[in-house]
Design brief:
It is built from 10 helices and 8 strands. The protein is of the alpha/beta class and 295 residues long.
Amino acid sequence: MALTRRQVLAGASAAIVAAQFRDVVAAEPTPPNYPVGVCDWMILKRQRLGAFPLAKEIGADGVEVDMGGLGDRDTFDSQLGKPEVREQFLAAARDNNLTICSLAMSGFYAQSFAERPTYKRMVGDCLDTAQELGVKVVFLPLGVRGDLVQHPEMRPAIVERLRKLAPRAEAAGVTIGLETALDAGGEVALLDEIDSPAVKIYFNFANPLQAGRDLHAELRTLGAGRICQIHATDQDGVLLEQNERLDLPAVRQTLSDIGWSGWLVLERSRDANDAHNVRKNFGANAAYVKRVFGG
């Protein structure tokens, strides 16, 4: 059976790692590690240094830093292209004992990745920034215009653009994490069509829940190798601990069963009666996720 390019590259990477550690005696297995991050734009600190002390106060282990707005610009409204600004962000992370766990291109929630003419520069700027910061995951939501359930006609353009961007991500050692409206089977097919180990799914618990799909079946269908990071969230309404349709202890078991561990990044799940109380909402959610996942 012919191997896809994705499988060949992934296999080559695995062979290199195996060679590096061939003579090392295996240690006892360690439990899965689930550090907790928080989106800077959701704690009202979009690409601001103040996100780091606030994230520490909330009890997070890291921050997902946004690249800034798009509007009608050719690229993101980001200051992170400047070396001195990047160093300030790295210093703020170090000073607060935090990690920049990922960069986000949240501008694509409303803007069309499939249609913007300067998409290469936009995503390229994010990949370059990630490489300079030592960040390994960038978040790319396909958003409203890239909803492949409502707009399947956008699929050829999305696939073509991601195929063009994938080699750049591979060279940078950065994974592009997609959020789509597809079910897990559809996402598997999409990744197979793109055919790059540098493009994976940035899973969001809210998506299958809001669509009435089985969250656990979705995770099993995707499998550990196709998920780069997770937004551990549901739509706003109640805090995670009070959310009756999101059973986090059961989710933890499912993630353990499929062998996935990694960053769980808080995005929403705010108390609808006190939605702007950042410390209350994100502090409570961070504490609960850490209790469930042993962080």
